Structure formats: structure tokens, C-alpha cells
Inverse folding.
């Protein structure tokens, strides 16, 4: 069973004449880090919104750990953790309150919460600010809280939209390390990023999307062995632009 | 650059929202405003005629203009601090190659125009009533418009001058909502007690036919003496009553220009200070867990926590519902007496009902923004393993619970103070409860259809639509009650009204649940 299975996904926004997604199909295997790359407007965010249930699907299917997001949405949602690109949280809450709220929503027991909470706030170096109101956090700190919130229920699939933007160098390094630990537990990561160097280092496979179609799925282990150019150069040669 | 900026600000502040409104909303707004205006003008004409009878019309005019200026000054502090010192657009404007003086001048002009709009809304019924009562010609109405245009500069200058103090006080209150709640309750409690005393005194005097004795020579002389000192409202009055128009107009125009220039000067000195101090980091630490027994309590707790910690939500939800019983008591006392005198006791209930519907409806504006208050987080709610429908229903349940509590207290106060008898109290509660359910379900669907995700409470158009519809429906239901009371005995009329409202709420609930199913399952954000 795949952690994520997308079959022929199509999506059109109301009032538009053409589909934004024109038949996306891909799978993410257990213990795999999968990168989803494309230019701005290629359909990355729309795909993520369809996967996470934010947007309805027009045609095709999305399954998370075998649960269809359309027919069995609540079960499917229990199996992923999601970090949006704008790092949303409730800013009237303190970091601790917000994480506790998210844990309650995902029905995490208090014992598990305490254990994970202490580990994660230490890992992401946010212990000192955890009891302050989020509205007074810097952008980087807000992002850390959003990342920790997505990890608090230890889902099988971790979906990250632009996870490295806004993080300082040290925390970005910790995040990359944590992604590998996550993978080692047999769980999967599905991420989008404009940072192709990082993607090349941490991903097992990547898909390149252009104008709503997947142009290529690359096994990076094979790519590194066989190719003389970097992923960045390959990307530019494929989509023909410098705007990642 | 000045012109470009001014044009942009005028468009952003006065035209964006109204132009997007549909025809039905515009019709409802005009109708509701027309009805309310007609009632106010009618009451003011009666009052002004009384004043003319006692030869106190000039004093009445001065006092009302002065009162209007005080009200405008009090409410102006919030407008000035939001638009001048707390505005986010400085981040956008300051890096542009525009002189800061130009930005400030434009902002002060916009503030003046905002104050002018509210001044027109406040003084228009008064101006018309005075004009009708004293049979004035066209020149009076033109002068009236000119006078109203000269009123806002003084409140504006006071707001700007004491803006610093207001902001500091407000920042202190925003850090402690409990203190804010206590201050508001004490303030409204004091107002309630004061108004109750005044109303009781007036009613007692009217019942004993001693009201005319209030305006005896001593009182009249006192009022005349007092109004001599109420500068500059007496200058405004002089223009309206045709005394030395050119001289008074000259003084007011010169003074107003000076006040606006002085305001710009003061703001120039203050605003950089506020911009620098705006991002004060709150280091207060709250080491509290967010434990809850089940999903419903988790979401209720989240909602309450956000309401308590957000000043705007706190005012629009809890505070207005907390003062609803007091406001209702005051308004019902006035309306009961006026209707008894003018139409007869048997018609009191429909008018009381209409007023209670209006007050309870507009006290619950939170229902029109409970989806929007999620801001940009709204689409993210769809990723939770809890259906959006359930999350919305929990919000609605909480809102209905708090409103019902407030309605029970309201009706209890009215029954205990004999404004309503026990049976009418029960009828009133049932009609209020059912109609408010209707308001809530309608408002939630409207907010779900067009949520304002900017997170800004004041930019939410759904609230103004909600208020208009609430007032309109209150008038309709009040009118229906009046019709039934005119045709049948009161008890039968009430039962018929409950039946009509009950049918409506059943239809509305069915529609609400269906729409929630369609829109709530997959929210296209």
C-alpha cells in the first residue's frame, strides 16, 4: 500500500476555461522522501490543496494510506500532517496552547503529547518562546510552530509546502536531519521546495510538474549515478526557465 | 503625488465596499434607513415643537449640536487610532518616494471625511426636524449642510491631541481583557442606572402632568445661560437661525482650517513615535495547558479563548450580549410609555417585540463573522480530521447558547420590572429565540459564501449586511405582530406569530443544513 496515491487528478477553478491540473498521477512509497517541483503557477499548490482536502477534486482520486480523500476524508486526514507555505497558526494562542489544541484535534493522548512536545520543542529550539503568544513570534518561529504542529500526531505521511523558506541555517539543517529520521521510521515525506540543492540532497525521487502535467519523475539515486549535470541544471533544461 | 494618494484613499475608504453590494442589499439598506429616519424625524419634530412652544428652540439646537460633538469626539478616538497610528499601510507607504507630510495630510483629510459622514448621519434627522417644525426655506437646508461640514474639525483635533493617551490606555486594556470587561460593565451599568433614574423621573412628571413645569422661567434662564458658554455650538446655531451669518461663518471657517492644519502638525510629531512603538513585544508568559475532554469541548475552548483574547471579537460577541438586558430595559421603558400615550396600551407588545428583535439581533453581530474570524486559517480547517460542518455547528451552538442566556436574562428583567407580564414574557422569549435562530443561520451561510479572510474585523462587509437584514426583518415581524394584534386578541395574535416564525425557522434550518452539507464538506477557499 502506498502512503500517497494520486490517479489522474484533474482540477479546474470556477470561472476558468482550462484545467489547472490535467491528469496528475504519482505514488509515494513507505519510507520515501518525494519532492514535487515546478515553476510558479505550474500547479504545485493546487495539487497539495487537493491532497489535503482543502480543494474539492473534479476528477480522479487521491488516496492517503489507502483512504480516499473524497469518500473517506476523516480517516485520510488522520494519516497526514501538513505544513502550509504561509505557516498558519492561531496567533491569539501561546505556542504550547496551539500545539495542545492540534494534539486534541488529532486525539493524541496526553502522555504521547508530553513526550513528543518536549522532544520537538527542543529539536526546533523554541523552548524559551513556547509560552508566549504566537502573534509576537518572528516568521521563522511561526514556521517552527507550524512544523511541530504537523508532527505532533506522528502521521504516516508528512506534507510540507516550502518548508525551508524563512528558517535560519541551523534549524533548516535540523529539519533536513529530522526528515531523514522520519524516513528511517518507515514514514514518508512529500514536499515542495524552490531550494533544489536541498531537494537533491534529501529526496529519493522528484516529480517535475509543468502546466498541470507531470513532465518527469526522477529517481535521484539513479540520477546522481548516471547524470553529469545537477538537478537544478536538469530542471532548467526541462521546463526552460530560471523561475523555479 | 498628493492627488494620487488622496484618490486611492477615498476609493479604498468610501467606495470599495458599497459598489460591491447587490441591488437587494442596497434596497434593504435604503428601506431600513428610511424607516428609522422617519421615526427619528417624527419624534424630533414633536420634541422641537415642544421646545418652540417654550421658546427654547435655540437652546435645544445648541445642546444637540454640542451633544453630537461630544459623541463624535468619544467615538472618534477609536477611528483616529486605527486609521492613523495602528494602520498597516504605513509599511507600504513609507518606503515610497512620498513626503511623510503628504501621507499625513491625506490621512487627516480622509479622517475629516469619515467624521463628516457620521456627522451627516447624526445631524440629518435633527436638521430636517428643526426645518419642518419652524417652517424653514431652501436656504436653511443649504446653510445646514454647510454647518454640518464645519462640525468635525473640533472633535478631530481633540482626538488627535489626546490620541497618545487613548492609545496607551487601549494598549493597557488589550493586555488585560478582564479589566476591560469590568470597566465596560461598570460604565454601562452606570449609564443604565443613570438613564433609568432620568426615565423614571420623566415618566413620573408626565404622569403627574408636571412636565411642563420643568420649563419654567428658572430652567429656561439656566439653559439660556448654559448655552452661551457652549462654544462653538452656539456659533453653528447662530448661522442656522440667521444671526450674523457672514461673521459666524467666517469665524468657523477660519477656526476649522486652523484646527485641521494643527491636527496635521500634531500627527506629524506623533506618528513616527507610534510606528516605532507599535511592535511592542509582549513577553508575558502563560504556562497553561489546553486540555479538554472531547472534540466538542476542544473547539468550544478554542473559540472562547480566541474571543477572550481578541478585543474586537470580545466586544462583538460577549460585551454586546452582556449589555443586551440593560439596553432592552431602557428601550422597552421608553417605547412602552410612548406607545401607550400615542396609540394605546394594547399595541405596546408589538412595538416592544420589534425593539427587542432589533436589539438582540444587532447585539449578536458575531454570528455574521464566525466563519470570517478564522481569517486565512479557514481553508486549513479542512485538513483537520473533523468535518468542517461539525466545526461550524460547534461555533453556532456556542453562539446560540450565549445568546439564549442573554435573552433569558433580558426577558426575566422585563418580567420582574413589570414591563411584560409572565405570559407575554414567555411569548416574547419564544419569538425572540426563534427569530434570532433565523438571523444566525442566515448570517452563517452568508459568511460561509463570502468570507472576509483578511482577518480584519472592520473590513467585514457581512456584518453590515447582517445588521441591515436584521433591522429590516425586525420591522417586518413587528409589523406582522401589530397586524395580528389589530385583528385578534393578544394571546391569539402571539400564537399566530409564533406559528409564522416557527414555519420560517424550520425552512431556514432545512436550508442551512443542506447548504452546510454542500459547501462545508469541501470548502473551496
Amino acid at each position: 500500500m502506498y502512503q500517497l496515491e494520486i490517479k489522474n487528478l484533474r482540477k479546474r477553478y470556477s470561472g476558468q476555461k482550462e484545467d489547472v491540473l490535467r491528469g496528475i498521477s504519482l505514488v509515494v512509497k513507505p519510507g520515501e522522501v518525494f519532492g514535487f517541483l515546478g515553476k510558479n503557477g505550474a500547479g504545485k499548490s493546487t495539487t497539495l490543496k487537493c491532497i489535503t482536502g482543502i480543494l474539492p477534486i473534479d476528477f480522479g482520486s487521491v488516496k492517503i494510506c489507502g483512504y480516499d480523500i473524497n469518500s473517506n476524508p476523516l480517516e485520510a486526514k488522520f494519516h497526514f500532517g501538513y505544513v502550509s507555505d504561509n505557516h498558519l497558526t492561531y496567533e491569539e494562542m501561546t505556542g504550547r496552547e496551539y500545539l495542545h489544541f492540534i494534539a486534541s484535534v488529532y486525539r493524541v493522548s496526553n502522555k504521547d503529547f508530553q513526550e513528543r512536545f518536549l522532544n520537538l520543542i527542543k529539536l526546533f529550539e523554541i523552548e524559551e518562546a513556547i509560552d508566549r503568544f504566537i502573534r509576537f513570534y518572528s516568521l521563522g518561529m511561526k514556521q517552527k510552530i507550524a512544523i511541530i504542529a504537523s508532527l505532533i500526531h506522528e502521521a504516516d505521511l508528512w506534507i510540507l509546502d516550502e518548508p525551508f523558506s524563512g528558517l535560519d541555517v541551523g534549524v533548516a539543517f535540523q529539519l533536513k536531519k529530522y526528515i531523514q529520521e522520519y524516513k528511517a521510521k518507515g514514514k514518508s515525506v512529500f514536499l515542495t521546495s524552490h531550494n533544489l540543492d536541498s531537494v537533491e540532497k534529501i529526496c529519493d525521487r522528484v516529480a517535475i510538474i509543468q502546466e498541470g502535467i507531470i513532465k518527469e519523475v526522477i529517481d535521484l539515486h539513479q540520477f546522481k549515478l548516471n547524470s553529469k549535470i545537477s538537478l537544478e541544471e536538469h530542471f532548467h533544461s526541462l521546463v526552460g526557465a530560471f523561475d523555479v | 503625488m498628493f492627488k494620487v494618494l488622496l484618490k486611492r484613499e477615498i476609493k479604498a475608504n468610501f467606495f470599495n465596499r458599497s459598489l460591491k453590494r447587490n441591488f437587494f442589499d442596497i434596497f434593504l439598506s435604503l428601506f431600513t434607513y428610511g424607516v428609522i429616519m422617519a421615526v427619528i424625524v417624527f419624534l424630533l419634530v414633536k420634541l422641537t415643537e415642544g421646545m418652540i412652544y417654550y421658546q427654547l428652540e435655540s437652546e435645544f439646537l445648541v445642546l444637540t449640536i454640542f451633544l453630537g460633538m461630544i459623541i463624535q469626539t468619544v467615538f472618534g478616538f477609536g477611528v483616529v487610532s486605527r486609521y492613523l497610528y495602528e494602520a498597516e499601510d504605513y509599511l507600504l507607504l513609507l518606503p515610497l518616494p512620498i513626503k511623510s507630510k503628504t501621507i499625513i495630510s491625506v490621512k487627516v483629510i480622509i479622517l475629516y471625511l469619515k467624521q463628516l459622514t457620521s456627522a451627516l448621519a447624526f445631524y440629518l434627522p435633527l436638521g430636517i426636524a428643526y426645518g419642518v417644525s419652524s417652517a424653514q426655506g431652501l436656504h436653511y437646508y443649504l446653510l445646514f449642510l454647510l454647518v454640518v461640514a464645519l462640525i468635525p474639525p473640533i472633535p478631530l483635533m481633540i482626538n488627535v491631541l489626546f490620541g497618545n493617551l487613548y492609545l496607551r490606555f487601549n494598549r493597557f486594556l488589550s493586555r488585560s481583557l478582564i479589566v476591560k470587561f469590568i470597566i465596560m460593565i461598570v460604565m454601562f451599568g452606570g449609564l443604565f442606572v443613570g438613564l433609568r433614574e432620568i426615565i423614571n423621573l420623566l415618566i413620573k412628571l408626565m404622569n403627574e402632568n408636571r412636565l411642563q413645569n420643568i420649563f419654567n422661567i428658572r430652567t429656561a434662564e439656566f439653559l439660556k445661560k448654559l448655552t452661551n458658554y457652549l462654544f462653538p455650538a452656539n456659533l453653528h446655531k447662530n448661522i442656522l437661525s440667521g444671526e450674523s451669518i457672514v461673521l459666524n461663518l467666517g469665524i468657523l471657517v477660519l477656526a476649522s482650517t486652523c484646527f485641521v492644519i494643527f491636527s496635521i502638525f500634531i500627527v506629524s510629531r506623533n506618528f513616527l513615535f507610534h510606528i516605532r512603538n507599535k511592535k511592542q513585544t509582549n513577553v508575558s508568559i502563560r504556562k497553561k495547558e489546553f486540555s479538554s475532554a472531547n472534540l466538542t469541548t476542544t473547539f468550544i475552548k478554542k473559540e472562547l479563548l480566541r474571543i477572550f483574547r481578541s478585543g474586537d471579537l470580545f466586544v462583538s460577541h460577549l460585551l454586546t450580549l452582556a449589555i443586551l438586558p440593560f439596553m432592552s430595559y431602557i428601550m422597552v421603558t421608553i417605547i412602552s410609555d410612548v406607545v401607550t400615550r400615542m396609540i394605546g396600551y394594547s399595541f405596546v407588545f408589538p412595538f416592544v417585540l420589534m425593539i427587542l428583535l432589533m436589539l438582540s439581533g444587532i447585539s449578536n453581530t458575531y454570528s455574521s463573522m464566525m466563519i470570517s474570524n478564522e481569517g486565512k486559517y479557514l481553508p486549513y480547517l479542512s485538513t483537520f480530521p473533523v468535518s468542517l460542518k461539525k466545526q461550524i455547528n460547534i461555533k453556532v451552538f456556542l453562539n446560540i447558547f450565549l445568546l439564549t442566556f442573554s435573552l433569558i436574562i433580558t426577558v426575566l428583567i422585563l418580567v420582574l420590572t413589570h414591563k411584560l407580564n409572565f405570559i407575554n414574557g414567555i411569548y416574547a422569549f419564544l419569538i425572540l429565540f426563534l427569530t434570532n435562530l433565523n438571523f444566525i443561520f442566515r448570517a452563517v451561510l452568508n459568511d460561509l459564501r463570502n468570507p472576509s479572510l483578511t482577518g480584519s474585523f472592520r473590513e467585514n462587509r457581512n456584518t453590515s449586511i447582517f445588521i441591515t437584514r436584521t433591522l429590516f426583518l425586525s420591522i417586518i415581524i413587528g409589523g406582522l405582530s401589530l397586524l395580528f394584534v389589530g385583528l385578534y386578541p393578544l394571546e391569539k395574535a402571539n400564537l399566530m406569530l409564533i406559528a409564522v416564525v416557527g414555519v420560517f425557522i424550520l425552512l431556514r434550518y432545512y436550508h442551512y443544513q443542506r447548504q452546510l452539507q454542500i459547501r462545508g464538506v469541501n470548502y473551496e477557499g
Notes: Residues 1-79+156-244 of chain A form a domain with the Rossmann fold fold (CATH 3.40.50.300). Strands of chain A lie at 4-11, 21-28, 33-38, 59-64, 67-68, 80-83, 157-161, 188-192, 205-210, 213-219. Chain A has two domains: 1-79+156-244, 89-154.
